[in-house]
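Recap slide: Uu.00g112770.m01.CDS01, sequence and predicted structure.
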Amino acid sequence: MAKPQDDVVRALQDYTTCDVSDALCKLKYRNGGFLSGLTMWSPQRQDGPTKIAGPVYTVKYVPLDDPAPKHPTHYIDSVPNGAVVFVSCPRKTPNAVYGGLMSARAQFSGAVGSVIDGRFRDLQEQRELGYPVYARDVGTAPPAELLKVAAVNVPVQLQTDEQDMVIRPGDYIVADLNGVVVLPVELAEQALPLMKKQVEADERMAVEIRKGMSFSEASQKFR
C-alpha cells in the first residue's frame, strides 16, 4: 500500500514550483514557500527539464566551536529512499559542505536530489552522475577545518537575510528551473487542489491571450 506522502509526491510531479508557490500564497504561507538564493547547478546549470519533489531530510552544520556534539555517523548513509537532502551551513562559510561522493551515495540510496544552503564542490562529478543539485554557489575546500555536522532530521533555518524561513523534516521540497520551494506537510492536502485549479485557469487564459484577448479580460474571465 502506498504511503500518503507517496501520493503527494506523485501529485507534485504535475506542477512547477511556481504552481506550488501560487497555492501557498492563497493559503497565506509566507513567500509562497520560496527559498531564496538556491538555483540549479546539476545536471545542468539552470537548463533542462530537471525537477525534484520529495520529503526533506535535513542536515545541520555548525562551527567547530559550537557546544553541540558532532553527529556520530555520516549523515549520507541514513538518507531515505525518495528524499530530498537539504544541507544547512552557517552563513558566509567559504568552504564547500557537500561533494560528489555524497551525491553518489545519495543516488544509490534513492534520494531524488540535494539542496545545499551554502557551497558545494565536484561540479563535473555531480553532472556526470546526472544527479540534481541546487545550491547557493560552488567551492573547492572541504568543510572539516571550519564546521561539523551537529544533527540530522531537525528543523533548520534558511541561511539568508532576505527571509525568515524554516525547513522541517517531512516537509516537501520541490525544485526546478524557477528555484526551490518548501511545502509544509500540513498544507499539502489543501494546496494540491488549488494548484490544479490555478493551472487549469492559466491554461485557458493562455489560449485566449494567444488569440488576442487582453490579460485583464482573460484574468477576469477565468480566474
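The chain has a mean pLDDT of 95.
DSSP finds six helices and eleven strands in the chain.
(End of recap.)
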